[in-house]
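Protein modeling request. Please complete all fields; requests missing the sequence field cannot be processed.
Requester role: graduate student
Desired output: 3D structure, token encoding
Chains: 1
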Amino acid sequence: MALRLDSYKLSARKNRDRLVCGLGWFSIGLGVAEFLAPRTVCRWIGVKPRSGLMRLLGLREIVSGIGILTQPQKGMWLKSRVAGDSMDLGLLSLAFLEPNSKPIHWPPPPPPWPELPRWMYSAAMK
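Delivered output (126 residues):
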């Protein structure tokens, strides 16, 4: 019984570590996108382009992701990520209240790739 419980704890710890690592890499990827292509990210989310602000948010994401992946005490970095996400939601809410905002439409328009037929794209979105 004790062996089974210990293996369950080990499995849960591995899953948690994998999730935390995935969150770190996602933060870095999102931050790089926000930093290198701020106007595109603004267009994706339907807000007026603010390149400087988006680049700062991208840097914050990158720093949080690097902290999550490299530091042994990940709790502080995870809390900074949550605080940053709260700030992002607040800024996004303010941006959607502006008269020129274009809220996100779902599903997104089909991709510009000619080799992917439209029926395949719409079938994948269902």
